[in-house]
Every structure is written in C-alpha cells, then in structure tokens.
Specification:
70% of the residues lie in helices and 6% in strands. By secondary structure, it is mainly α.
Length: 233
C-alpha cells in the first residue's frame, strides 16, 4: 500500500477481496509487523541502521483457493487490483515462476495418474479373468454336481463374489501403497512442489482407486462367472 493510505481504506479493500469467489484468505500485514518478521529472519533489528525509520509498507497477503491457484487467475487478480485500487496500492507482487512450476508439476502428476490408472485397470481385468477361469475349470465337476442337486447359479457364484471383495481390498491396499511410493519417488527425483491442490489430487486418486477397485473386482467377477457358468451344463 501507499504510505498515505489510512486504516479505513485498508479495511475496505480487504473486505472487498474477501468477498471474491476465488480468494481463500486475505491477511493484512502492517509495516511494523513486517519489520519485526524481517528482523527475526536476519537476526538483528535492521531499523537501528536506518535510525529507526521503517522503509517497509503495509501490505496484504492474498491466498487463492486451490482450484483457482493458476497463473491465469493470478494475472487476472493482478489486473483487478491495479485497476480498481490504483490510487491505494503501490505494487502487486506474485511469484510467477513458482506458479508456472506448480502448474507444470500438476500436469505431470495428472499424466502420471492417468497412465497408472490405465495400467492398473487393464492388469486388474486380466488377472481377474484368468483367476476365475482357472478356478471354475478346476472345480468344474464340483459345480456340475452342485447343479444336479439343485444349486442355483447365485449360490454357486456367492463364494467367488465374496472372494473378489476380499481380494479387492488386499489389491487396493497394495496399489495405494505402490501409488504413494511412486508419487513420493517422483517428487524426490523431479523436485515436484506439493501444494494443496496436488495433495487433494493424490488424496482423491487414492479414494478413487479404493472405490473403483472394489467395484471392478465385484462386477468383473460377476460377469465372468456368469459367462463361464453358462458353459457348464
């Protein structure tokens, strides 16, 4: 802010920004507080060198909501502040390079998640199909006997479906651990910066893997067992 701005104007600007849909938080930092923080960082009171004169200005720290934390939105906010509060604001600063890096990393994460999900889906279907086929073939005579004594297909399918849920939980646990391990490995080697948006994506992916994994196991088992049981007279 400019030195001439009063507290009423600062309050008005802060309130206007807080009402913005894509802004999560607005924090006012007085020049006295800024000087105190800077002194702690450098380890001494720098104002002594300046004969007690504080060259810093009052400012506000703006945090955008995770879903809006992209370079275009920051530029839009920069334009908005400079035009609407041109007479009150001295300068608008945001870390463009850091934001670009975050966006770039988010794209890499999304590509990795998509690739990982496709591989996981194909591998799951393949394993389920082959496992059930081998189980039914090995128990073909038992299934025929069960049918002869009046067992329904639903009764015969029951243990396979229960097993699919149990196996699904185990495979999901392994997949989630593997996914998190790979994510942190990628972060360590590619220097990916984890912000709230990326963590939300990873959390969503883990939940998605859990829910979809159980559904895929159950539905696939149901379809495949139906198909093979029809072939057994």
């Amino acid at each position: 802010f400019l030195n001439e701005i009063n507290e009423t104007e600062i309050t008005r600007i802060t309130k206007t920004l807080k009402n913005n849909d894509y802004i999560k938080d607005v924090l006012f930092i007085s020049k006295e507080k800024a000087a105190e923080s800077l002194s702690k960082i450098i380890g001494e009171d720098f104002l002594n060198v300046l004969d007690g004169k504080n060259p810093l200005l009052d400012c506000i720290d703006i945090t955008l909501k995770p879903e809006h934390a992209n370079l275009d939105k920051f530029k839009e906010l920069d334009f908005f502040l400079k035009n609407k509060f041109n007479e009150e604001i001295n300068e608008v600063k945001f870390h463009e390079n850091l934001i670009e890096k975050i966006n770039y990393n988010m794209n890499k994460i999304m590509k990795f998640i998509s690739f990982f999900s496709i591989i996981l889906f194909v591998a799951t279907i393949f394993l389920i199909k082959n496992t059930i086929r081998m189980n039914i073939r090995s128990e073909k005579d038992i299934i025929k006997t069960m049918k002869l004594v009046g067992a329904t297909n639903d009764f015969i399918k029951s243990p396979y479906l229960k097993s699919s849920i149990f196996n699904g939980i185990i495979s999901i646990s392994i997949s989630t651990i593997l996914f998190l391990s790979i994510s942190f490995f990628v972060n360590k080697n590619l220097n990916i910066f984890y912000n709230e948006s990326l963590l939300n994506i990873i959390t969503f992916t883990c939940v998605f893997i859990c829910v979809i994994g159980i559904m895929i196991n159950y539905v696939s088992t149901l379809v495949i067992t139906n198909s093979h049981l029809k072939k057994i007279n």
